[in-house]
Specification:
homodimer; DNA-binding; about 50% helix; 8 strands; 2 domains; Rossmann fold; two-stranded antiparallel ribbon; alpha/beta; 9 helices; Arc Repressor Mutant, subunit A
Chain lengths: ~210, ~210
DNA sequence: TAGATTGTTAATCGATTAACAATC
DNA sequence: TAGATTGTTAATCGATTAACAATC
C-alpha cells in the first residue's frame, strides 16, 4: 500500500524538519530531506505534491511553512492519546517509553486482568480491564496498543473493537486481522528477526561466492 | 521490496503450518493458507513457485513436506541467536519475551553500560557493554537488537557494526541506516502509532461524509 | 542573465492478480 | 470420468524514477 508508505515518509520528514528547526535552519531542499529519510528526492517531491505541499522553485522549502502544512495534514494539533492493554513486560515498558514524549504520543492508561498489576496512582495509571470501556469513552480514545500474551490476544482484541477502538498496534506474538471498523498493525518481533536473519545469511552466501 | 515481503509471507505460512500440524492436520490448500495469512491464494502459490515449493495438482500440499521444504529455505535448523544491547525497559522486556521461544529465537545475552543493570547470573545474563565483542565472537552471533535511548543509539550501532554484527533490529526511537556490511530494520513505535492514527481519522472522515 | 530547484508528466519497474492449461 | 487444485504465464495495477519545462 503506497498511501501508507507515503504517510510514513511524510511523518519521517516531519521528524527531520523538527530537528532541523531546532538546529536553527530555515530552508531545506528536497535533496536534503531525501537523504535524511533515505529515499530519492523525486519521491519526496512526489509525496509532497500528492498533498499539495509546495515550496519555491529554486528556493527549496521554508522549514516553518512545511512544518505547519505537514502538521495540518498529519494532525499534530492535539497529542495522540493511546491506551495500553496488557501490562506485562512489553506493555509496562511502553508505558514510560521515552520515544513517545517527543513525538506527541501520550499514554493515558494501562489495563490488566491481574490484580497485582493494578495501580491507579501510577503515571500512567493501570486499571483493571473492566474499566477499559469507561476510560476509553471518558477520554475519547480510539487507538490502543495490545500487549497481552498470545492466548488471550484475539479475545481481548475483540473486546476492544466492540468497545469502539478504531486502531490497534498489536505487540502480541500472533498476527491479528482488522475489520471494517478497526485497523490493526501487527508488530511481529520474532518475524522481523527471522526476516532480517534470512537476508543476513543471504548476504553471507553471496560474499562467500565472491570470495572464491 | 518484494523479496522481503515474500520472505515475510513464507515465514507466516510456516507459523500457520506449524499450528495446523499440531492440530493433527495433514494437507492444506493454497486457499487455506492464503486465508490464514491474509493474502490471495495466487500470491501464496506464486511465492512458493519462486522457491520451487511444490504440492500436488488437485491434492494441495502435504503439511510435513511443505514444512521441511520451508525450513530448508528459511533456515530453521539451528535457533536464531540474538544479543540485546541496552537493557532498559524495552530491552529487558525483550529478554524474556514469550513470543521468541516458540519461534526459535534465542536471546543469548544482554549488554548495558549501567553497572546496576549487570547480572551475569540472570537468564539470559546481562554483561557490561565492554564484553560485547567477546560474547559475540564466542557465540558466533550476527544479529542483535538495539534498545538504547535515542542519544546513544547511533554510536552504539556503529560499535556493533565494527564488531561484525550483520543485522540490527532497532527499537531506539530514531531510525538508523544500515551499511554495506549490516542490515538495519527500524521498529519506530511512535511512527507506527501516528501512521495508524492517520488512517483512523481518515476512516472517520469518510464515515461522516457517508452519514450525511 | 545563468544556474539551480521545484512540480509534474511520462516512462519504467516490479509486484500482484487473473486466468487457464496441466493433471491428479 | 468429472471436478478441483496446482503451477505458470500474461495482464493489470500501482509505485517509483527519470526527465524536463517552469521559474525564481
Amino acid at each position: 500500500m503506497s498511501a501508507k508508505d507515503t504517510i510514513s515518509r511524510l511523518l519521517r520528514c516531519r521528524a527531520v524538519l523538527e530537528k532541523l528547526k531546532l538546529l536553527g535552519m530555515v530552508k531545506v531542499y528536497s535533496d536534503n530531506l531525501a537523504a535524511a529519510v533515505g529515499v530519492s528526492a523525486a519521491l519526496v517531491r512526489k509525496d509532497f505534491s500528492i498533498f499539495g505541499l509546495t515550496g519555491h522553485r529554486r528556493g527549496g522549502y521554508r522549514i516553518d511553512d512545511l512544518l505547519s502544512q505537514l502538521n495540518r495534514i498529519l494532525g499534530r494539533d492535539q497529542p495522540l492519546k493511546v491506551l495500553i492493554v496488557g501490562c506485562g513486560k512489553i506493555g509496562t515498558a511502553l508505558m514510560n517509553y521515552r520515544g513517545f514524549g517527543t513525538q506527541g504520543v501520550r499514554i493515558i492508561a494501562g489495563f490488566d486482568v491481574d490484580p497485582e498489576k493494578i495501580n491507579p496512582n501510577a503515571v500512567p495509571p493501570v486499571y483493571p480491564m473492566d474499566d477499559f470501556e469507561r476510560v476509553m469513552n471518558a477520554e475519547q480514545i480510539r487507538v490502543a496498543i495490545l500487549a497481552t500474551p498470545e492466548n488471550t490476544a484475539a479475545h481481548v482484541a475483540e473486546r476492544m473493537i466492540m468497545a469502539g477502538i478504531r486502531g490497534i498496534l498489536n505487540f502480541a506474538p500472533i498476527p491479528l486481522k482488522g475489520g471494517p471498523s478497526c485497523l490493526v498493525q501487527n508488530i511481529d518481533i520474532a518475524l522481523e528477526l527471522e526476516n532480517l536473519y534470512y537476508f543476513v545469511r543471504l548476504g553471507e552466501a553471496t560474499e562467500e561466492r565472491r570470495g572464491k
